[in-house]
Amino acid sequence: MFEEPRMLSEADFGVEEKFIPELVEEPRRNRNVFDEIQETGHDEDFIPAITDEFCPTDAPAGSPAKVQVLAERVRKGLPLWHPEDRVSYNGFIGASGRFHD
């Protein structure tokens, strides 16, 4: 009777499998785009992290609140724009009229 064919392994050649941590390099991840530019001189390979901190804002475009949210996202290495951020002024109640001295 013939044996069923099988794939050869390193064990068939007397080679022990060893894990050598020095040869395994984890991909480097900079905390934010500024760290990436400082380290590499460019931001071409920077990938923002999506964490639990990445949540939408209802702040209107151009407002100090929106600018603050965007700045914080950059500092944390998050994507700049959230798909659920406010995109219009619908339903927004703001100040109107002229200011007097």
- Helices, by number, come to 2
Straight-line N-to-C gap: 105 Å
Task: List low-pLDDT spans.
Answer: 97-101
Written as H for each helix and E for each strand, in order along the chain, the element string is HH
Q: Name the overall outline.
A: elongated
Strand content: under 5%
In which range does the helix fraction lie? 10-25%
Please tell me how large the radius of gyration is: 27 Å
The count of β-strands is: 0
Average predicted confidence as pLDDT: 77
Q: Biggest β-sheet, characterized?
A: none
Category by helix and strand content: mainly alpha
What key phrases describe this protein's structure?
101 residues; mainly alpha; 21% helix; disordered C terminus
Describe the structure in your own words.
- The chain is mainly α and 101 residues long.
- It has a domain at 24-76.
- The protein has helices at 33-40, 64-76.
- It is elongated and about 85 Å long.
- Mean pLDDT is 77; it is low at 97-101.
